[in-house]
Recover the amino acids of this structure.
């Protein structure tokens, strides 16, 4: 199916949204169950679509049209969501969700603002070579930091590690490449990586 066909259909194939139904700005949690919870923080939230792991609400924030779309877990499903949201008219995406702490000075509940991601996954390599860094938009990153300062939320800004395997991190000892997994993890920690998750590098 061509991109032109996808864009001309009544609704985009996976996310089920039509152009004009989503805002320029989109918050991207993984879990569909979190979408209506986040949407309650918007004015006039409206459920737009729910297909597979993709649920979308659109509302307004300070007069600006904003959407919330779940991506499911991992970079492949996140890439589909971002691709189709872009087709529908969105251009600024903020990944929101949980992550695993990698530094001792970070406490549970702290906010982490990622200015870049280690591409320890394979989805993004279908777009551009691994040597190209996954770096967040500077203006968006600085705005998030300023917002955290304004509301006095304990936060950290730095790198995250995006991975493909949840259990490869949490139970590396039972994997055939356990030594490699553990050595790589130690390197990310020693390099100052703040947290680990499965979507941000997309």
């Amino acid at each position: 199916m061509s991109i032109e066909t996808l864009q001309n259909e009544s609704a985009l194939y996976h996310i089920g949204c039509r152009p004009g139904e989503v805002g320029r700005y989109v918050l991207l949690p993984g879990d569909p169950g979190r979408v209506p919870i986040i949407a309650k923080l918007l004015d006039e939230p409206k459920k737009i679509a729910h297909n597979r792991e993709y649920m979308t609400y659109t509302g307004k924030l300070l007069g600006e049209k904003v959407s919330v779309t779940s991506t499911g877990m991992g970079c492949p499903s996140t890439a589909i969501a971002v691709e189709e949201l872009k087709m529908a008219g969105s251009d600024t995406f903020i990944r929101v969700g949980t992550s695993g702490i990698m530094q001792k000075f970070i406490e549970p509940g702290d906010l982490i603002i990622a200015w870049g991601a280690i591409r320890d996954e394979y989805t993004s390599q279908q777009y551009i070579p691994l040597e190209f860094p996954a770096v967040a938009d500077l203006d968006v990153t600085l705005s998030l930091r300023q917002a955290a300062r304004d509301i006095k939320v304990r936060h950290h800004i730095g790198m995250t590690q995006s991975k493909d395997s949840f259990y490869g991190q949490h139970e590396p000892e039972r994997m055939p490449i356990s030594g490699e997994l553990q050595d790589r993890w130690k390197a990310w920690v020693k390099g100052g990586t703040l947290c680990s998750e499965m979507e941000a590098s997309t």
About this structure: The radius of gyration is 18 Å.
